[in-house]
Structure formats: structure tokens, C-alpha cells
Mitochondrial splicing system protein (Malassezia caprae), 485 residues
Amino acid sequence: MASAVPTIYALATGPPPSAISIVRIAGPLAMPLGAAMTQAREWVPRQLVKRTLRHPCTREVLDDALLAYFPPGQSFSGDATLELHLHGSPAVVRDVLAALTDARALYDAPLRPARPGEFTRRAFEQGRLDLTACEALDALLHAETSAQRRLAQQAGGGRQAQLYEDLRTKLLRSMAHLEAMLDFSDEDDIDARLWDSVRAQVADLRAYLAKELQLDVPASQRSYVDVAQHGVRVALYGRPNVGKSSLLNQLVRRDAAIVSSHPGTTRDIIEASMELGGFRVTLADTAGLRESHDEVEQLGMQRTHMYVDAADLAVLVCTPDEWASLPPAGPTFLTPSEVERVGLRRASGAWDGVPDLVLINKMDTAPVAPIPKRHAGHPCHVWHASVAHAQGIDQILEDLGTWVAQRYATEARTTPLVTQARHRHLLLDVVTCLDAFLAMPPDADIVVAAEELRRAAQLLGEITGHTLSSHDVLGEIFARFCIGK
């Protein structure tokens, strides 16, 4: 009887041309296809062997390739798998994939191209990976920065799943204690002690989840996971013609913003990204701040205030003359009029007018007397640069990278509990169940109380995939994968 499990195949490496391209075949027909294309009858598992690869129907030579066979249970997906290590030629890859399509005429069993993420989905369905490991693998494949790579690796390998399993075990233990209360329902002393013990355990678990979900933290305080995934936002702001656009172009090494001697050229937010300190850093050139009756320029300045208010790092760009016009103590003690004059104000009004960093540009026009790098009373670092002459740019990049790494990388030492929006949504439902339990009085119905904990345990199981209320979530997760993984 023909196997109902389809054999699937796909290019597992990037698009050619390349030095090597790997085509992966997984399923019951992996070994028969290998035999049909090479005439080899015996395979040594997990070893590369050189073979002449032929079309299974026409016998045309397709390539001299290296082949590796993985028996069932010893491959990534858990299926019998054959990997074809080809020359990375567009023609070779195209013709080999076409030959596999033609081979469908030779077998009664299903044979077809793989769908996105299908190899990984099979690994999940055969118990080789849990859902958090699958999501971590997807994150690793899409990682563009070192921080994203580290985050994906910390969540993978079953480490994140173990966190959830530990939480689930604690809930199951609490449920067992509740069931014990049913056995000792005639002994009030034991009931009270067990109830207090279970309630304390659930309260501790609830406090842990609140911390991981940052439920009691202001929305403006970003988590390490958020920063690693989405990057750091740096606002470059100040008066017109202080060199903000030129600075952006120098930092990202390309012409991202238009540079002109005409004041007010930049009227919208211009963003450009790069990697610094292992994180994606998005630098934003903003509209210059000044008195203006131009409606479009006013809108641009409003956007500047909003962006600076939301940015992780605010960098004031000014000239030596502007800096010299401030009080000797520096930006820490500016009067409201002085704050307004140089744009040292965030839209929320909660900021004290102190930038995170200051860049004094156009130092080639400055007097010989040195300008202090720091001002007493505030750790506001001051850079000196001449952006037009590319002087000081390397130091700015080095300092920015150090600042980002010191501020965020120290939080990357432990396995994160929440790395996906799916995790957060399910954990919020868990917290709701725990809150419902904690709100119950000591004389509450034990069966009803245990049901809240059972529901919470089920939700934790949904995160790892051990319990699923709907298989639709699998389609959503694996659709994000590339074909061939």
C-alpha cells in the first residue's frame, strides 16, 4: 500500500549562483530517489559520498554531487532525508528540481515541493522541536544583528521551553495540593494550611509573570527583548543648518538625507539604520527647531518634538557659538527661554531639557580655547566634530556603540521568557486565570478554583505546543519560514 506521507523536496540554501547549493529531500521516497538518480543501492548514514547525479527518467547527467543520507529519526525533520550538495549553478539547481518533479511518474506515493517551513513543521509534529524552538529557529534565520542572533539562540535549544515547563509543573503541583484538600475536607486545620500554601505559590508565580511581562513598568521603558528585536532609536535634533543631515550621511556612510545651505531643508523625519554595539540603531534626521510661520515647517517641527520624545537617545547638534551662548554650567540649568532657543525640549514636557548626548559641530570655526567635554552636575557627554571634514565621526560611532552595548547588552545573560507576541497574549490570559484564583475566598469551591489553575496550565502548554486549542496557530507560525527549512 502506498505511503500517505508525502515526500517533499526544496532548495535548502540561498538562491544561486553560489559555491554550493543543497537540495533537501525528506520522506519515504528519499532513499528510492537517491537510488534512481545515482544507481547506489547501499547508503552509509550521515556521510558525504560523491556520486554522479542523473535524471531518474532520461538518465541525463545533471551534476557531480556530494550526497548525504539520514535515516528516519536521525534527520532534522525526523523523516528519512537525502541531501544533494550541488554546484551552485542556477541551471544545475533548476534542472535537479525539475527532475524531482518528473520523478513523480515513477512512484505511486506522493512526491511534491515543500511548503514554507514544512521541514520544521514535521520536526515539531514528530516531537523533535517544540513551538518555542521553532519560533527561535525562525528568529535566527531572520536575524540581522548580533543582538537578534543572541536572543534567538537563548530562546532555542529547548531552553525557553524548559522555563514554561517549569511554570506548568508548579501549577500542576498546586492543583495536586487542591485535590488533597478534597481528601482532607473534614480537617479544617489541614485545609487552611494547604489553601494558604497554594495561594502563596500562585501569588509568587503571578508576581514572576508580572515582572517578565513588565506589567508594572512604564510603557516608555523598553525591555531588552524589544530593543534586540526592533533596535534603538536615536534622534538628531537642533536648530536649522547645524549639520544634522550631514551628520546622518557621515554616520551611515551614504547620502540618506538631502544637504543644503538653505535653512529648513529637512521638513520630515529621515531615518537610516546601521548596526552598533550588536543592535540595530535607527538614526533620525529631524526638522530644525526655530521660530517659523511656514505651516509645513511647523508640522515638521511638531514631528521633531514627537520623535525626540519617543527616542531612546536624544542627541543635540549645535554649533560652537550656540554652545558658548549657554550658561557656564551647561544644559543642566537652562532657563525655559534658553531651552526653547536651542530646542532642548521633549514634547511630553516631562523631560528636564537635558539631552542624552551633545555634538558640537563645525569645530573648524571654533575659537582656539577648548570646550569642556562634560559639565558639572550632569553626565551629559559632549562630542566635538567637524562633520563637513569628516572629523570626529569615528569617535561618535565608537561612543554610540559603547553606549548601546552598556545600556542594553547587560540584560542579555538569561533565557528570556517572552520573545513573541503570541507568548505575551497567552501569558496575559494566564495572569487573568491566576488573578481569578487569587480573588477567591478560602471557602471557595475547590473544583472551581482548580479549574482556573488547570486553564492556566493549558495556556502554558499552548505556548510550547504541548496543548493546542487550535491548529490554526501552526499555519501562522510556519508560514513565516522560508521554503527549504
Q: What stands out?
A: The longest strand covers residues 61-70.
